[in-house]
Design goal:
The chain is α/β, with parallel strands linked by helices. Helix content is 40%, strand content 17%.
């Protein structure tokens, strides 16, 4: 097993230095440990070392882990959510990062309304217009926020994006900056952006949440992909 405590401390130090370079407080950045495909023992080690937020991509995998671990940390859904998994997702997750279409917002509203819940969600933005990724186009964000703003049980508090793969972390900076400017334009305070390869640049550009997996938990084993 990798030294989870040491890895976590190193990531925290890198976040702190990036925040300081940008004139920000490190405490303003939430570190989400992305635990998809990570075994429970490694997750427990991270929790023991003080990790307070976990990110999962798949509803069923998260359900199994919550059953074993309970809720010692906040659970964030950072992967695609199918409408037929909304009911289960609402039972598991504290925040949904991947609100990527109006149909999903409407299903969240219906399910949350029937249970008297309030859903915190981030609007996923397809920041580079990639055909392989979901999310709203940047120029569709305003209309989407207006439509979702009419719902009673879904609150959008920020934006999330996954930029195109880049050879260097610095190459992601323009995308992060674009997302921050888009959030500022709409008065949104939360920005979920940055992963293991580029989270320092994301923090410098205003990320309030970074989604870090392999830098904490080590390399993931090969596994067949499935959707949430």
């Amino acid at each position: 097993m990798p030294d989870i405590r040491e890895n976590l401390e190193r990531v925290r130090e890198r976040i702190a230095r990036a925040a300081q370079r940008a004139g920000r407080r490190p405490d303003d950045v939430l570190l989400i440990g992305v635990s998809k495909t990570v075994d429970v023992a490694r997750i427990q080690a991270a929790l023991a070392a003080g990790l307070r937020a976990l990110g999962e991509n798949r509803v069923q995998e998260a359900r199994t882990k919550v059953a074993e671990l309970g809720r010692p940390a906040a659970w964030h859904l950072v992967g695609h959510l199918q409408t037929n998994k909304v009911k289960d997702a609402l039972e598991i997750f504290d925040v949904i990062h991947s609100l990527d279409r109006l149909e999903l917002a409407q299903e969240l509203e219906r399910r949350a309304g029937s249970r008297g819940l309030a859903v915190e969600a981030l609007l996923q933005v397809n920041i580079a217009g990639e055909a392989s990724k979901g999310g709203f186009a940047p120029d569709a964000v305003s209309e989407a926020l207006d439509a979702i703003g009419k719902l009673s049980h879904v609150q959008v508090t920020g934006l999330m994006a996954i930029p195109p793969e880049a050879e260097r972390p610095e190459d992601s900076r323009p995308w992060f900056r674009t997302l921050r400017e888009l959030a500022e334009r709409h008065g949104l305070r939360r920005l979920s952006m940055g992963m293991s390869g580029d989270f320092e640049v994301a923090v410098e550009e205003g990320a309030t949440m970074v989604r870090v997996g392999t830098a904490i938990f080590g390399a993931r084993p090969p596994r067949a992909e499935s959707t949430a």
